[in-house]
Amino acid sequence: MPEQIQIRLNDQPVSVSAGTVVAAALAQAGQTRFRSSVQGEARGPLCGMGLCMECRVTINGQANCRSCQILCEEGMEVRTDA
Amino acid sequence: MPETRLSFEVAVVGGGPAGLAAACAAAESGRRTALLDDTPWLGGQIWRGQQAHPVIPQATFWIEKFRRSKAVLLDQCAVLGPISPRTLLTEHPRGPRQIEWEKLILATGARELFLPFPGWTLPGNFGPGGLQSLAKHGWPVAGRRIVLAGSGPLLLAVAHGLQNMGARIVSINEQAPWSRLLPFALQLYRRPAKMKEAVRLKWALRQTPYRCGVWPLRAEGTDQVRAVILTDGRRQWTEECDFLACGFGLVPNLELPLALGCQLDNGFVKIDPWQVSSVPGIYCAGEITGIGGADAALLEGRIAGLSAGGQEQAALALQAQRLQWHHFRQGLAQAFALREELAHLAAPETIVCRCEDVTCAKMKSFSCWREAKLQTRCGMGPCQGRVCGPAAKVLFGWGMESVRPPILPARVETLCPGP
User: Fold this and answer.
1) What is the CATH architecture assignment of B114-248?
2) DSSP code of B279?
3) Which of A45, A47, B290, B353 pairs as cysteine with B378 (C-beta 3.0–4.6 A)?
4) A5, A20, A26, A49: which to substitute to probe chain B, counting the most B Cβ within 10 Å?
């Protein structure tokens, strides 16, 4: 059993295995909409390698973090703009 | 306060196969070497996840070799561009770092080519490599129905990887026709390892349809992909899925070489047999000089590392092998050349620039990338044209003329350090 990490996603507690990226934690919690586009469309990760910026979320108050490139850390606060 | 200004004899950008081989060779040559990478992992996109769950012996070998070398790893270091001729500005989560170099090796790799079609902006549509990377880091795929579409050898490899993680692969749809793929597949006898790998993947996926000459027309769903409409040019059909993994091959990450002034040749960085670019002191290796996979990248990386380390004679011995890989690259490009129809998948209202929501019709009314950018903001959002730029090249024939640093979004503190 890999070590479990607790994060908070839009104020809800989420538990994930160590080595999980933030984007995957969101998907595990059932979140498909990561951000709203300029016109308000739902968007989620596309490139999975930190280039397209579609997966950006706010992490520990820092806006526009690439959730596909950042590993979950204990106590992390993640917010989506949706 | 971490050290904010570091100095190296050789700096390598990119921790994939080319970068690892380059850093090892430069360090072996006795040069004080650093390897910079954007991610917290080693191995680049192609070997992502190999540190945590090693399955590819070649990846383990190179990651271990790098760890045993004297080269310094600077991970999570996003390179923003040059701030002086011999200094790079980088951003680390703990703050900015300036990296001074005497020789610079660029191994920034490639990304997937995305072409817009109706529904491609729906959540649940990924690049195949992108979905595999996410899945390796916890994205749930077990039990999910996945359609793969687009082009390139990656489709088969990704389908296999996802299947091993419990995904249900509905179908694999390669846009290139059999008539192009077959001659390429047959001449793989000259590369037994590649041939063996292709046969192994095909056998593992024998229950899954692998179709050639088939491409996606549109994806359907309201807030998420639910189905994809495919065609072989004669008829159309619908396949339901939870995720669509669609990418049309790879395009080189040229932003940094361009920002440093390296000249291009036919869409890739122009290099000499020692991997030296048009800018003295800057070497380029791997996918940015031609799309050819990990083996070609390892070889080019080694040549670049040896050359930068002053061992031109040792690099000379690798030239025959290098030429063979360049032939392989040409074969790959011909076999998986994109069909004309793919440039016309986007409807007038289909969004091409996802960052700024700019439609195909809006962009089409301009004559070049620069003019379209000025008038519509296409390519000026956070991805800085990394997705829509290569797409616009296929759709409208536009080339990207210049790149301006910072080449990635950066924090204000990084660009204007306080007192």
Assistant:
1) 3-Layer(bba) Sandwich (3.50)
2) S
3) B353
4) A49
Kindly list the residues from chain A whose CB atom is less than 8 angstroms away from the CB atom of residue B356.
Answer: 38
Answer for the pair B148, B128: CB distance below 8 angstroms, yes or no.
yes
User: Model confidence at B229, in pLDDT bands (50, 70, 90)?
Assistant: very high
Q: Which of B39, B111, B135 sits opposite A47 (nearest CB)?
A: B111
B-chain residues near A39 (CB < 8 A): 357
Residues 6+ apart with CB under 8 A from B263: B269, B270, B277, B278
Whether residues B52 and A32 touch (CB distance < 8 A) is answered with: no
pLDDT band at residue B150 under the 50/70/90 scheme? very high
**Tokens standing for B359?**
């439609």
CATH number of A4-79: 3.10.20.440
Candidate from A12-26, B47-61, B141-155, B259-273 with smallest mean pLDDT: B47-61
Per DSSP, which regions of B175-308 are E strands? 210-212, 215-220, 227-231, 236-240, 243-248, 250-252, 264-265, 268-269, 282-284
> Would you state the pLDDT for residue A2?
72
Contact B45 A49 (CB under 8 A): yes
- β-partners of residue A71 are A21
Q: Are B351 and B116 in contact (CB under 8 A)?
A: yes
How many residues make up chain A in this entry? 82
| Region B60-65 average pLDDT | 96
Taking an 8 Å cut-off on Cβ atoms, the answer to whether B123 and A43 are in contact is yes
Interface contact A44-B357, CB threshold 8 A: no
Interval B217-221 mean pLDDT: 98
Q: With an 8 Å Cβ cutoff, are A51 and B387 in contact?
A: yes
Interface of B with A (CB under 8 A): 38-40, 45, 52, 111-112, 114, 121-127, 129-135, 137-140, 223-224, 253, 351, 354-357, 381-383, 386-387, 409
Nearest to B130 among A27, A33, A47 (CB): A47
State how far the Cα of B61 lies from the Cα of B13, in Å rounded to an integer: 20
Domain ranges of chain A: 4-79
CB contacts of A57 in chain B (<8 Å) are none
Hey, are the CB atoms on B125 and A46 less than 8 Å from each other? Answer: yes
Interface touch A45/B134, C-beta < 8 Å: yes
B389 Cβ neighbours under 8 A, 6+ residues apart: B369, B379, B400
Q: What is the mean pLDDT of chain B?
A: 94
* Domain range summary for chain B, segments of one domain joined by +: 5-111+251-333, 114-248, 346-396
Q: Is the pLDDT of residue B419 over 80?
A: no
The domain B5-111+251-333 is placed in CATH, from the list 3.40.50.2300, 3.40.50.1820, 3.50.50.60, 3.40.50.1450, at 3.50.50.60
Q: Tell me the per-residue pLDDT of B290-348, one tens digit each, with 9 for 90 and over.
A: 999 999 999 999 999 999 999 999 999 999 999 999 999 999 999 999 999 999 999 99
